[in-house]
Known about the structure:
Blueprint: H1 4-45, E1 66-67, H2 72-78, E2 85-86, E3 95-101, H3 106-123, E4 132-139, H4 143-153, E5 159-162, H5 166-170, E6 178-184, E7 190-197, H6 203-214
Amino acid sequence: MQSPSHLSACALHAGRWEGLRKGIKAMKRILINLTAIAVYALIFNFPVLAAKSPPLKGAALPEINLAIPSKHSDRIYLGLPASGFFKIDEIKAKVVIIEIFSMYCPHCQKGALEVNELYQEIENNPSLKGKIKLIGIGSGNSPYEVEIFRKTYDIPFPLFADGDFSIHKVLGEVRTPYFIGVKINDDGTHQVFYSRLGGIKEADQFLKVILQLSELAQGGAK
């Protein structure tokens, strides 16, 4: 028969072992949580790497996610739902012209009138209206700065902020103004057909180039 002191020692050892076991389980839970946090940080906070070159003709445009505009007329123009995010190839158009600008770029300021003229030429042409859409992306500009640019130069098409340069980086850190033409195919695919630095000197000549390179003139804009 075991003595009381021996039984007491056994109980003490059992209690210590149970405490150790619970401590190990708690440590495992902590490690799992820390691992999950680390993975989340890598996925959602990983720095955007800059592309080595601007978008290339014939290639797909790098993926760009933009917030759907809060302005109703902008959503109607782009053919987008009421909220969320969208990609360039989700715009309801056959051709999308993207201007990368900056509020502080003197060439962008000087050329704003000609870009507005391009917009009006498209919208006033029944064979082009709805087929070609324009948007602007303000490189390094906050929503406040983009709004100042829009009001100052009476920009009629949607503008988007790129305050953290994330879009600017995936587009190869181009200088401004930079114009990109994207053709959206009926099967949902798309490709860049125009990618060039420099402003628009004459809206009608620029539009002719866009129609020729996108082949839109042969496809229903006659």
